[in-house]
Amino acid sequence: GESVGLHLPTLSVQEGDNSIINCAYSNSASDYFIWYKQESGKGPQFIIDIRSNMDKRQGQRVTVLLNKTVKHLSLQIAATQPGDSAVYFCAEKGESGGYQKVTFGTGTKLQVIP
Amino acid sequence: DVKVTQSSRYLVKRTGEKVFLECVQDMDHENMFWYRQDPGLGLRLIYFSYDVKMKEKGDIPEGYSVSREKKERFSLILESASTNQTSMYLCASSSPGSLALSYEQYFGPGTRLTVT
Fold this sequence. Notes:
- The complex is a heterodimer.
- Chain A has strands at 10-14, 19-24, 32-38, 45-51, 56-58, 62-67, 72-77, 86-96, 99-104, 108-113.
- By secondary structure, chain A is mainly beta.
- In chain A, strand 6 (62-67) and strand 7 (72-77) form a beta hairpin.
- By secondary structure, chain B is an all-beta fold.
- In chain B, the strands form two sheets. In chain B, strands 2, 4, 5, 6, 9, 10 and 11 form a seven-stranded mixed β-sheet that branches.
- Chain B is globular.
- Chain B has no helices and eleven strands.
- The A-B interface holds A 1-3, 5-8, 32, 34, 41-46, 49, 89, 93, 97, 99-107 and B 4, 35, 38-45, 48, 50, 56, 83-84, 86, 90, 92, 97-98, 102-110.
């Protein structure tokens, strides 16, 4: 029969507030991390990336924080807007079987309340 | 502007049918990927290819095969579709990691496949 997926974590934020989306990664040898945004009916789109030799990187209205000690990644969105409503995925890059492999998290749904 | 296109947005097939999902990219990327996306499970890698005629199994290759005869085209094949292959299928491409500043993958819009 058809399998049933797990419930997607949801973060609800008031328009204009800051959003923080968290991600725990699994491989301590991962050296590169990416955040993607997926709007309804579209494929994921790149937001921002960070290498493991950094602990913070800023873009336009977005900041990524990396804590390698606890293998934690976060995406902060300043002044959240309705257009930010989407599912956000973190991804980590490491080596597997001689290839550079990117592994995606399960995603967090961001709902912006007008 | 970077573009990855997939042959169909929606597809309905019957159990046992052979299904072809096509993906084309116009960025001259070496790397191409096929993922399936299910609610709460994120993106799971089915197969990938780092060069023409080259393919490698991802995390969930069972029930699937792929073909990469040309650099710009990467096809996913379901030899005998089953209901548990009902899912969203996403194709992506990227530049070679060792030469690129970024490992960003560019995704197509996805194909929602329903197997009845």
